[in-house]
Design goal:
5-stranded parallel sheet; alpha/beta; Rossmann fold; single chain
Length: 368
């Protein structure tokens, strides 16, 4: 059974009712009491109606904190994304502020409905989502074939080089070109994967193009350390739900990336409103802000900062015409020691890393 846990304070009852009406036609059950924390691999999404009452409710905050630790999908819901003050949430509940929020406005709940469908892995969301399966043939081909067939059966557009490349095709050129069109890369982290330069190249390309990566582990360890913090599933061939769990992991990852990107775009638009600054989109998930006299490159990632992401920002900045570049990360806080390490790593290059909630002020200052 698909579950939506809808949590709100007394002052959020009206908004919660509107959310329930929006979800009424979906194949799911809505629960409004604070339950026990579900198993991470159940088909569930937690919606938190952000009102002062909810943020003052110790039971709600404790439940959400425990759900986040279990890596369950938590989506903050507001009435209007254009007017809500998210800085208030950061001070009260930093764990919630890390989550990518959605709302009933300005799109009448379209993004909220898509987020629920995505985090539950519903077919209505999966349809036409593109998934690239990256694997080592020597020890992962049988599973790759099974996953490919399963994902197509769930309406995902799966890419597997065994099937999509015609005879005579320049295999790796076609593979690398296709990654940029993907919504997710599924890495089969088998023991022999470290001996494949092609798999490493595929994951590096996903990192370069800001494509989310999910990992299926063959053992209780990681073999290919790139993207080691990515969502992962320990594969158990005896588990009857193993394929459903893989689907849920992929769908949640795509939905979270989409919510994150929408929030970044909204923040940029709000910060630059009334200013003569254009927002260009030179590549997927990359933005060039141009006032005519100043150009700022913005990249974002729903993850923590890493040395690989800093290097990607540096290379993107060098290849662009930007005067400076900003990487937006999804953490709620950034310790001073991390900021010092970033300053040391970037040296004299005009690169910055900001938290999601710091982006607005950073852009206002850039184009003051």
């Amino acid at each position: 059974m698909n579950r939506v846990i809808l949590l709100s304070g007394p002052d959020g009852a009206g908004l919660a009712q509107r959310v329930k009406l929006l979800l009424a036609a979906e194949p799911l059950a809505v629960e409004e009491a604070v339950p026990a924390v579900p198993d991470p691999w159940t088909s569930v999404v937690i919606l938190v109606v952000l009102t002062p009452g909810a943020l003052a409710d110790a039971a709600i905050l404790d439940f959400v904190e425990r759900a986040i630790r279990e890596r369950l999908p938590v989506v903050p819901v507001v009435e209007d994304l254009r007017t809500y003050r998210f800085a208030d949430v950061t001070r009260v509940a930093p764990g919630i502020s890390e989550r990518n929020a959605t709302g009933l406005e300005p799109d009448s709940g379209v993004a909220l409905l898509a987020a629920v469908r995505g985090h539950l892995g519903l077919e209505s969301f999966a349809r036409d989502q593109k998934v690239f399966v990256s694997f080592r043939r020597s020890d992962a081909e049988p599973l790759a074939r099974e996953l490919y067939a399963y994902l197509w059966g769930q309406r995902f557009e799966a890419f597997l080089d065994l099937f999509q490349i015609e005879g005579g095709g320049v295999v790796q050129d076609i593979v690398m070109e296709s990654i940029g069109r993907m919504d997710c890369v599924l890495l089969l982290d088998s023991p022999d994967v470290v001996n494949s330069r092609w798999v490493e190249a595929e994951i590096r390309e996903a990192l370069r193009l800001r494509v989310p990566v999910c990992r299926i582990q063959f053992e209780d360890r990681i073999f290919l350390p790139l993207y080691s913090e990515s969502p992962q599933l320990r594969w158990d061939s005896e588990d009857p739900l193993r394929f459903d769990k893989a689907r849920l992991m992929i769908s949640r990852s795509i939905a979270n990336r989409r919510l994150h990107e929408e929030q970044i775009v909204r923040t940029m638009a709000a910060a630059l409103r009334g200013r003569a600054v254009t927002i260009e989109n030179p590549a997927r998930r990359q933005y060039l802000l141009n006032s005519g006299t100043k150009r700022v490159l913005v990249e974002s990632e729903p993850a923590a900062v890493s040395i690989e992401r800093l290097h990607r920002l540096h290379e993107s900045w060098r290849a662009s015409v930007a005067h400076e570049a900003i990487l937006v990360v999804d953490s709620a806080v950034m310790p001073e020691v991390t900021r010092e390490a970033i300053a040391w790593a970037v040296g004299t290059a005009p690169l910055r890393v900001v938290l999601k909630w710091e982006l607005y002020a950073a852009l206002v200052a850039c184009f003051a």
